[in-house]
Every structure is written in structure tokens, then in C-alpha cells.
Specification:
The protein is α/β, with parallel strands linked by helices. The chain is built from eleven helices and twelve strands.
Length: 320
């Protein structure tokens, strides 16, 4: 039996669908029952409810912890650190105490510092800057897990995840939705390494089936924002001709949105954090360790973009 958190989020939802496809029994932890998740046991509660956590991990072999608060913004946010680190640590301790044999943590490439030279791989230093709350919270959980024993532990560090199954359209998926609706007035410079959600999910399932331990970067290929926008526009047959901003203009825009963002409940898409993330990646990201140990075979970008196009069009999730 597998216990899965975050099943209403992007990775968690696609994981749920593939676990069903593979006939792998699992249950999910949800804040409230939802028709979005079919034919699966739903434990109502959250990471702060000890009783529901105990019920969630009871008679479970593997916990896949996908739930997290994403916070793409600078600044110390105690809620992010509490959910992504403190509550995650409590989930691990509850699972271990209940006799769970394998704990899989879906972390992020952002838990690690971008190296100034050389290849970006699993040896990169973990983030120590609390002002980057999301990055720091993931890094803290990884530090904690690295000190544990008596249970198999797997840490997965995906790059920027794209693909169907995303009800909230975070990251690059937000870009594709804007292109699709012709609501993209401008394109920024920079870019990032992207990975298909299905490749992340399949590696996670491989880790479950083969009891693979360790830390693994799951990436594919670096694409600039203009490049990947053009590819998606061609697939979706959307003629796009937005203004391409220069780096200085991007930084000026980020300064403005940082100010406006002080009065917004959620981070704006062009703040300093997101702009710096797009501009800072210069080292190639290696996923070779995952290729060697997780049978990781990232798919061609055009297939991933066709999947997200179908998802945007009619919420059709293609399992293969």
C-alpha cells in the first residue's frame, strides 16, 4: 500500500492516475473529499492533523510526499517553511514510527544552489538563505532526511515541470496557457531546464517498485522562453508576436512588480525571484544519475507540449 500526499496538485494528480494504471494500491491525503480523485481511499485532513496522519500511514509500505506550498517570491514566509519543512518532517517521523519502509520526497531543483562553474548535479550545495523561503524549506527537509536511518529514503529534484494534469498552471504551464488564450503581451529573456510530469512520475514509480534510494535530479533540456513559446505556438497553431524584453528592462519590471506585490496576496509572475531564476542558470543540469538508477528516459519536448495543449483545450490527460 502506498500513501500519497499532494494528489490534487500537478505531480500528485498525475501520480495518482499512473498508480491506478499500474494497479498499485494507494490512498491519498486531502483537505476535503473531491470528485477529482476517483476510485481511491481519501483520508480527510492535512499535514498538521496528527490523527489523520496516523490513519494515512497505517499499514502502508511507502509514502510519496508530493504536497508542498509553492512560493516563487523572495522573503521569509513562516507558513511555507512550516508546511514544506516542519510538517513534512512530522509526516516522516509519523510514517517511520508506523513501520513505513520507504519514504519518497518530491523536492525541487530549487533546493540547491546554482553552481558558478561546472555541471549542476546532485553534489550541488543546498540553499541556506531563509529569504528564499520555498528553496530553503525544501533544502531543510533534504538536510533532515540525509541524517535519518532505518528506512529507505528517496529524494527527487525535478527541474521546471510541464505537461497535462496541472489544474493550477504553475511555472511554464502558465506561459502556455497565456499563449493559448492570446494573453501574452511580452516575452522575457532567459529560460530553464524543463521536464515532463510523466517522466517525473514514472521515475517515482520505478523507485517504489525497485526500492531505489538516494537523491536524483530529474531534468531534460534547457529552453529559452522565446524558444519554447515559439514551439508551443506552432503546436497549438497560435500566432504569437509578443514584445521580447531585454535583460535591463526585465529587471526594471521586476523592481516595479516587487513593489506592487507587497499589496498582493500571491506572488506576481514577473517578480525578482522569477526573473533571477530565469537569468541565473548557466551551468548544464545533469540527470545522468537518474538515467543510470531510475531508468529515466525524458521524452521529446514536442510530445510534452502536445500533452499540455490537449490539457488546456479540454483537460484531457494522456497516459502512456
Amino acid at each position: 500500500m502506498i500513501a500519497l500526499t499532494g494528489a490534487t496538485g500537478h505531480v500528485g494528480y498525475v501520480l495518482h492516475k499512473y498508480l491506478q494504471k499500474e494497479n498499485m494500491p494507494h490512498r491519498v491525503l486531502v483537505r476535503k473529499r473531491t470528485n477529482r480523485l476517483s476510485n481511491v481511499e481519501q483520508i480527510v485532513g492535512d499535514l498538521t492533523h496528527q490523527h489523520s496522519l496516523q490513519q494515512f500511514v497505517n499499514k502502508v509500505d511507502t509514502v510519496i510526499h508530493s504536497a508542498a506550498v509553492v512560493y516563487p517570491k523572495y522573503g521569509v514566509n513562516e507558513d511555507v517553511i512550516n508546511v514544506n519543512y516542519i510538517c513534512s518532517k512530522n509526516l516522516f517521523e509519523t510514517a517511520k514510527k508506523a513501520g513505513v519502509k520507504h519514504f519518497i520526497f518530491i523536492s525541487s531543483i530549487h533546493s540547491m544552489e546554482v553552481p558558478t562553474t561546472g555541471v549542476f548535479d546532485e553534489t550541488a550545495a543546498l540553499v541556506k538563505d531563509e529569504n528564499r523561503s520555498y528553496d530553503y524549506s525544501k533544502a531543510q527537509m533534504e538536510r533532515y532526511l540525509s541524517q535519518q536511518s532505518g528506512i529507505k529514503i528517496t529524494i527527487l529534484n525535478p527541474t521546471s515541470i510541464i505537461g497535462g494534469g496541472d489544474f493550477y498552471f504553475n511555472g511554464f504551464n502558465q506561459l502556455f496557457r497565456l499563449i493559448h488564450s492570446y494573453h501574452l503581451p511580452m516575452l522575457t529573456q532567459g529560460g530553464f531546464d524543463v521536464v515532463d510530469v510523466k517522466d517525473v512520475v514514472k521515475s517515482c514509480i520505478f523507485a517504489v517498485q525497485h526500492q531505489v534510494e538516494g537523491k536524483y535530479i530529474l531534468g531534460n533540456t534547457y529552453y529559452s522562453i522565446p524558444e519554447i513559446a515559439k514551439i508551443y505556438g506552432n503546436i497549438a497553431q497560435k500566432l504569437i508576436s509578443p514584445i521580447e524584453l531585454s535583460t535591463p528592462v526585465m529587471k526594471m519590471l521586476a523592481t516595479f512588480t516587487d513593489f506592487v506585490g507587497k499589496f498582493s496576496k500571491s506572488p506576481l509572475p514577473t517578480n525578482s525571484y522569477s526573473i533571477n531564476t530565469l537569468l541565473e542558470l548557466k551551468s548544464p543540469i545533469s540527470h545522468q544519475k537518474a538515467v543510470n538508477n531510475l531508468d529515466f528516459r525524458p521524452r521529446v519536448i514536442h510530445n510534452s507540449l502536445r500533452d499540455i495543449h490537449k490539457w488546456i483545450e479540454n483537460q484531457e490527460l494522456i497516459l502512456d
